[in-house]
Task: inverse folding
């Protein structure tokens, strides 16, 4: 286990351990909305979620909590992001991604060139996001008490350059993750500013977390699509979808099988969000050979070979 995950474990151990508040197995709960006891499969009892919130997540696969991260913290994350864009700091392991529409243009050390940071766990200021106690208290409701940070991102969705490449196709995050069980994985995604349909807020298909992992591939989009932005194959645009418009600091927690994406950014601003995928310490790695995840494994390995010159004994495991 890496240092980042160790740090997070330590943090968790320092959280208020209200005795016996966490049960190791999902429980039955009687809720005001239901006259029959309902098997709660996706959430744990921790005294934090109301029965209505638990049932909402169970049925929809996401839960939006308003005003969870302070303006002050978000402004600090923004400053840390800007320092990285200006190349004032070098962060080990960090992946800096540019939108495919501008990837071939001249390099400018500015946020305009960066559409996404991945694996920022070695940047202490950005990693503070993953260890905010108020986030971890929610995460614990989905993963249980032993929490690992598995994957981190800061998404800086650029104004669309006219080819709709700022869209993120509808997908399930589990496609990218070679570990299980899915129900003990959760993403927290915090809006770093007001996000609307105009600037490309998250779009979710409620309830799809109850399905299975689907086949993913590049959507056939005329204007091109970003590297590794796979979408669910045969996406039906007629399905009921929900646009999650959010204020700065609002945070959505969602299941890794929930089908979601984001529309194009039709404004001139860079729409920012920060996120972390967490998993229970009891999660284990799987071999994706022979599964629908084989295509993403090949792409990830290709990039690793080109970037780091590694070959042979590399595996599709996210090196946090
Ligand atoms: C749950 C979660 C994981 C879900 C997701 O986030 S899905 C999306 C995840 N995306 C990724 O993981 C992509 C990670 N990105 C990367 O590793 C990098 O940005 C790379 C795509 C490999 C490019 O990095 P790097 O090689 O440093 O960039 P260069 O500027 O030297 O370009 C090399 C060649 O790649 C091209 N390129 C750069 N950025 C993109 C892009 N966004 N989409 C498609 N192609 C791209 C670039 O044009 C260049 O191509 P050639 O000139 O060699 O033909
Ligand atoms: N063929 C497709 N495969 C996968 N995902 C898709 C496909 N077409 C659109 N999407 C996704 O659907 C979501 C909705 O995006 P889209 O830009 O079409 O509309 P919107 O921004 O939600 O609303 P509108 O543009 O109508 O105001 C986005 O996540 C987009 O990437
Ligand atoms: O912020 C967004 O546009 C969504 C990104 C996303 O879903 C992802 O990278 O997995
Ligand atoms: Fe996603
Ligand atoms: Mg749109």
Result:
């Amino acid at each position: 286990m890496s240092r980042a995950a160790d740090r997070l474990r330590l943090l968790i151990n320092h959280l208020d351990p209200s005795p016996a508040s966490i049960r190791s197995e999902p429980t039955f709960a009687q809720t005001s909305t239901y006259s029959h006891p309902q098997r709660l499969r996706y959430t744990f009892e921790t005294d934090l979620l109301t029965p209505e919130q638990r049932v909402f997540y169970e049925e929809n696969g996401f839960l939006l909590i308003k005003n969870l991260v302070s303006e002050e913290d978000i402004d600090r994350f923004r400053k840390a992001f800007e320092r990285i864009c200006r190349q004032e700091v070098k962060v080990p392991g960090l992946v800096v991604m540019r939108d495919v529409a501008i990837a071939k243009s001249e390099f400018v050390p500015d946020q305009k060139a960066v559409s996404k940071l991945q694996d920022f766990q070695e940047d202490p200021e950005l990693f503070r996001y993953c260890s905010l106690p108020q986030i971890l208290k929610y995460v614990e409701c989905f993963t249980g008490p032993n929490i690992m940070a598995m994957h981190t991102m800061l998404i800086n969705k650029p104004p669309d350059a006219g080819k709709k490449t700022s869209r993120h196709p509808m997908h399930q995050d589990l496609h990218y993750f070679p570990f299980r069980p899915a129900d003990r994985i959760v993403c927290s995604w915090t809006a770093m500013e007001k996000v609307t349909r105009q600037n490309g807020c998250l779009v979710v298909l409620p309830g799809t977390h109850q399905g299975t992992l689907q086949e993913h591939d590049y959507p056939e989009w005329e204007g091109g699509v970003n590297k590794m932005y796979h979408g669910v194959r045969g996406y039906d645009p007629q399905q009921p979808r929900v646009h999650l418009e959010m204020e700065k600091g609002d945070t959505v927690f969602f299941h890794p099988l929930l089908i979601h994406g984001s529309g194009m950014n039709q404004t001139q601003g860079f729409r920012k969000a920060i996120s972390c995928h967490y998993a229970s310490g009891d999660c284990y790695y799987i071999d994706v050979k022979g599964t629908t995840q084989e295509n993403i494994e090949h792409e990830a390995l290709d990039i690793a070979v080109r970037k780091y010159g590694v070959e042979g004994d590399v595996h599709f495991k996210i090196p946090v």
Remarks:
- The CA atoms of residues 115 and 264 lie 13 Å apart.
- The chain has one domain: 3-15+42-308.
- The helical segments are 3-13, 51-60, 71-85, 124-127, 133-143, 294-308.
- Residues 3-15+42-308 form a domain with the Jelly Rolls fold (CATH 2.60.120.620).
